[in-house]
Amino acid sequence: MPASTGERLYVATSLADAVAALADRGSAGAPLAGATWIMRAPIRREELRSSYVGIGGIAELCAVELTDGEIRIGACVTHAGLIAALAGVEGCDGLVAAAGGAANPAVRQMATVGGNLCASDFPASDLSPALLCLDASVELRTPGGRERMPVGRLLDVRRTLEPGTLVTGVVIARKSLRTGHARLPLRKAGDYPVAIVSMAVALGSEGSIEDIKVAVGSVEASARRWPQLEEQLLGRPLDPARAHELAKAGAGVFAGRESVEAPGWYRVQVLSTLVRRAAQAALAA
Question: In this protein, which residues make up the domain named FAD-binding PCMH-type (predicted)?
Answer without folding.
Answer: 1-177
